[in-house]
Amino acid sequence: MKSFFAFLLFVVILLSCSAKQSSERKKLADKINTTASISYTKSKALEIIKTGFNAGDGYSEVWIRDYNTFIELASEVYSSEDLKKNLLVFFRMQGDDGNIIDGFVPKEKAYVDYDYITSELESRYVGHKNTVETDQESSLIQAVYKYIKVTGDSSVLSEKIGNKTVLERIDWAIEFLLNHRFSEEYGLIWGATTADWGDVQPEHGWGVDIDENTHRAIDIYDNAMLLIALDNLLEIQPQKKKKWGQLKKGLTQNCRKYLWDKNKQKFKPHIYLDKSPFSEDFNEDEIYYFGGTATAIEAGLLSKNEIKSSLKQMVALVKKAGAASIGLTLYPAYPEGFFANKIMNPEYSYQNGGDWTWFGGRMIQQLIKYGFLKEAFEQLVPMTERVMKNDGFYEWYTIDNQPRGSGTFRGSAGVLFVAIQLLEKEIARN
Fold it and tell me: How far is it between the farthest Cα atoms of the chain?
């Protein structure tokens, strides 16, 4: 009899919790539906994506790290053939060692003073690669995966480019990272020293090319991006498990072993393969990388409790900085003068602590996927409100929430559009 009453009590508690959750979801659904900036952001995103595939009004190029974040939005208004055309250009311009370019532009619009890349397989465009980055290969693989998910067209993998299929070229791109950007000592990939996910190194006024002055470093963003790419590849090509599954396992273990600080519940900014470009008395480990952390969560590197702790730190640091959203790149910023490129100075400018929806939106997506719906809504609204206030998707914002850079930054539109879609879908599911 006692066990029966205990069971009955358990059922009552369960039903009560379920009713409470249902009520909370309804309240949240009402908030989403009545928040004008959310519906405005969705419609504005669809409006600007119709005007092209370049990163924004400040860029002529189609960049792969940007295209990867708005290809899902683009699928709402473009045909699968249009989406695929852009992807195939990157494969046609793949380097002789398997590397993937950053972006391409029509030859007649190649105005920027870049050392342009050409290819016999692609006569219409010239390309460019910021060699300080190590995310182009991973970004293209992720974009191909998203293309297949939104269109259902897996035939792209067997498309022949030169003497290789797209799938063979994907493998070749990963081989490039292992041959040219892999540290045997740490079992992780490396790039130049940059601020979190950024593409500007400290040593030069422009700062986008690796040279003899570069300080090679390992960070969480590059490795998490490769992990996501490997996850994507293994899902669409499970027969590759033997080939790439071991790499994924090693990267996962080594990210946790070398980059995750369990005591501080944060990722270390860098592991230097030689030495740091910064002064010895500067404690870089105090800096919190927002974008790299969001990417690591997407890569499955953190537990739900660690995600909760990460969000708590982000919110606290945003408040401490006086910023507007968890798009904050990092905190505290690198001191003035640490980067030769003037756009990284003063502190909290551009990638040195600017507020980027482009990455904050990705964190919101992960909060939704891990069930933090209320928190996701709370962090989403400051971003959608400034979209409506400024009538567009700006590249980044200052600490006091003033818009900067391109006013039609499609990466920001893409991540917010997907975040809103995910939130609405999850709320409607129950």
Answer: 84
